[in-house]
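Please produce the structure of this protein holding adenosine-5'-diphosphate.
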Amino acid sequence: MANQTVEAGSPAGGRGSSPQDSRPSGPGRSLAYLQGVSVERVHSIGPRQTGMLAKSGVRSVADLLQHFPHRYLDRSLVVPISGLPIDGEATLIAEVVRSYRRTTGRRGPREMLKVTVQDSHPGGPGSDRGLGGIQRMEITFFNQRFRARQLGPGTVAAFSGKVTTFRGRPQMTNPDVELISSDEGSFEGKIVPVHSAMGEMTPVRIRSAVGNALRRARPILDPVPRSVLETGGFMDRDRAFANIHFPRSMDDAREARRRLVFDELFRIQVALALTRHRLVEEQEGISQQLECQLVTDFLDGLPYDLTGAQKRVMREIGEDLEGGRPMHRLLQGEVGSGKTVVALAALLAAVGSGNQGAIMAPTEVLAEQLYLVLREMLSQAGLSPPVARPQVGGRHMGSLFQASGSVTVRVALLTSSRAAANYLDDPGRARVQEDMAEGEAQIVVGTHSLIQEGIRFRRLGVVVVDEQHRFGVSQRSTLKHKGADRQPDLLIMTATPIPRTLSMTLYGDLVLSNIDEMPPGRSPVKTRVIQKTPEGLSAVYGAIRKEVSKGRQAFVICPLIEDSEKLDVQSVTSQYREITSVLPDLTIDLMHGQLSSADKEAVMARFRSGETDVLVSTTVIEVGIDIPNATVMVITDAQRFGLSQLHQLRGRVGRGRHPGRCLLVADSATPDSTRRMKAMARTTDGLELAREDLQIRGQGAVFGARQSGMGDLKLADILRDLSAMKRAKRAADSLVESDPYLLEHPLLAKEIAVILGDDVQWLFDS
Ligand code: ADP
Ligand code: MG
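Below is the modeled complex.
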């Protein structure tokens, strides 16, 4: 079957037949199998090259085959020397006939290399155009010593650059060079694939190694069901690998790429569909009621009404909580759109149904903030329990009080450095852990360490993960053992909206709820970038003074210096001193992670009450802090922050009736940080910022940071390939629905296990 789809017959390659022509024969090899074959087995790759390739992450034959060309040169579009546009940009493919080097220059030595080239192969494009004869020209390189070695006689290369004339003859100076053939190997195809170099292995060498690998590896087996391929109009995988590396036409290359992009996305989507099946479809969930007295009391205690979007999302969550399958939902929404209150309602639903709730933040500081916010909201709603002193036998104090009629919610905080509770003074870690295990602590706030081994809950009903960055799929799979052996309902909140393709990749096993409406009365925050100069700083101080004179308040944020809390404290403290001396008549307070919890609370309470005008702080206040009267956000050394963090911080102002301002004080900018600052000044749209962030950092960085466990994408592009992703998801969902254990698709199962690695391993255990 596969054989028939492979075309045969093309100009022969330099050494043996080209990989395009090698007719696949024999039983074939799967990509998973090739993942286990070392590149050293490839003809022309020895131990030295193996070491070099390993440094670029290429260890197996499969890795090498997935080192795709980053571009192609189409020889048929290349102009001959006689047709070069004078004073224009052009690409010329030519063969080096002679080269010589000399040193010139009166003002210091300049290394000069002159290369004479002629139109390559007389049967090629030059003569096709009837321009007659072989044409020669000179190309000059300055200070590019390595070119002498690279451009020996007989080498064929593409030269791209500006064409000038000298005595009526065309010439080029310092053009870009792309080797096509050299004594390392030749290539005669019409479309020249350009593979990027790895270590000392030149593109030409890589290309010939890829050719050798393909010849040995083919036919490459296809794990994707035929029906999927037919629906998508895809070529089979064997041909796709041959055509992406050595296409006969640009159309071939495009179609091959389309097929292989699909493969990358399909693997991920199948893994996600399997995940969803294991964690949702196959599980018995806990039926819990969002509509209960506790939640009603809580919502009644809020000083505002929910927005339409919050109500809709609440209904979606309510249905999941009640249903027989566990909830597995992503809550998305712009900074400040009011996700927290929705998540807290879900936690209270667990409590109202006799279960426990847990909420996890990515860092300790954020967990602490979340705890304070939750405690505060409960107390506003009149749901705070009386505080007891811990004592022997005192554990049941909370329950006793509750029995006397008032409904309260017992909340605890547990991080690796701190334990606290709203029903006990200074309880200590051991006590909090005990209370979790016995169900006394009804809601627990913590970091991801909450789900670590050894930490037990009595009846975990709802788990909320705030600002998820590192909560991988395999971690989610362990939640079940934290409850009463039923899968708890899971709600994941993302800090900012992200492009759809990215959320389909990172959270594709989750159902999406979107809060797409801001609470009323907000106006967008105006952002300005200010140079860190004396004038710039005095403008900043002026802006602070002006707002304070109108009765408003300001934040001044200092960045994280390295990874040391101590240094942070030093920097924020010196900032505090400076501002205090410049604005001696204002009330200024200081906040950082090393303050005791009581001090932090006191600082926040003073700021909230309006007693303090300016709060100088580290990023402890990044999330969860809500002071509607604060209208100025100054971020010092803003160039050190990432876009999503800047966006979060900016979201701390403009939360009330008064419009907010954000002043980014930046210094010694890199091109990337300049781009970030410009983006911040341009838009307050989190989705647009997320796109920008992707473009600046690249999808690799984003994947890595989030530890999606979904491997890295080599061809697929998160910003571009949305429709391919949707197609892959549709195909994966229907495949998994009909074959949830991939019993009829063993090749695909193997490939997912091997290529996506450890993070999906649990799917295939048992
Ligand atoms: P997010 O977590 O989505 O960034 P928060 O949940 O922290 O946003 O909410 C931002 C602020 O808006 C909070 O101070 C919250 O009290 C307030 N808020 C939430 N919902 C509403 C609403 N419906 N009307 C007015 N204010 C709201
Ligand atoms: Mg939040």
